[in-house]
Amino acid sequence: MEILLVWLQPLNDWLENPAAAQMGFAALLGLAIFTLLIALTMVVMGASDPLRRRLRSLEVSGSDGTASTESGLHEWLGPMGERLVPTKEETRSRIAQELRRAGKRSPGAINLFFGVRLLLTVVPPLVMLLVLPFLRIPLNVGALLIACLAIAGYLLPRFWLERAIKQRSKLLSRGLPDALDLLVVCSEAGLGLGAAIQRVARDLEISHPELADELHLYTLQMRAGMDNRTALRDLEERTGVDDIRGLVTTLLQSMRFGSSIAMTLRLFAVELRDKRTQQAEERAAKVSTKMLFPLIFCILPSFMLVTLGPPILGVIAAFSRNGL
Asked: Topology with regard to the membrane (predicted)?
């Protein structure tokens, strides 16, 4: 808090001068209007480009229903974010990989991500700057709010992406045991690995749609002519789940050494079931420790107040009657 006051002290000294405060507010307003004009220019240039419109229409027509519902966002925010995409191939590939793990596999997902980041970084501070003259708050507080809104708008898409990756990974891990059991049954019934995964993907569409979508994409890659090992590696990189990584490694080793895939899947299913049992036992062992803090800070004060409150009040009343 003291460091913040030290940093805000020059701002307070500068805002004590009315002429300097008005000049600073006019400069911030001009900067906001200039940024808004640049953003509108980028949107108009992107929307008026016939080549980009044609490519976007082909992309939407060739994608699924999810891409068609997001075509409006791609049309307006895609050109804005296209100019903010990092130039480094490593950074661009890393962000694209994270978007794939979050379930966003459209070609314009990275442009949309940076477009949303630009929108959240510019629009809320601009709205606050326009509303600030009508609010009865000091200018230093208003400037701090504008800065906080800009920082929050810049960081919010990143937090959403990390949360989406974590949530999707949890859903994929939750549906993997059922998929393994079905794979074992299909493999022992005589189906090959590709046909078994296709059948499992069709059976899991209602109970585990995320995992079914990934398995269905694997079957589409196989139909398109991709090698079996390459498709499995892509499934591993696309999901980023440790259990799926272990499954892919086990299947690749089974293909390499020529062992039975059905027996390999059964052994991996047993190991995964034991791992889930150990995780459940670990969580159950942590319950007593986690319950200690609510007992101490929530239940124990209420219990002490109920049990010791009346005697303490009686002692206070006795002392007051005796004049003490």
From this structure: Multi-pass membrane protein
CB 112 within 8 Å of CB 78: yes
DSSP labels, 11-61: HHHHHTSHHHHHHHHHHHHHHHHHHHHHHHHHHHHHHH-HHHHHHHHHHHH
Q: Is 259 left (phi over 0), alpha (psi -120 to 50) or beta?
A: beta
Contact 92, 85 (CB under 8 A): yes
Which amino acid, one-letter code, is at 130? Answer: L
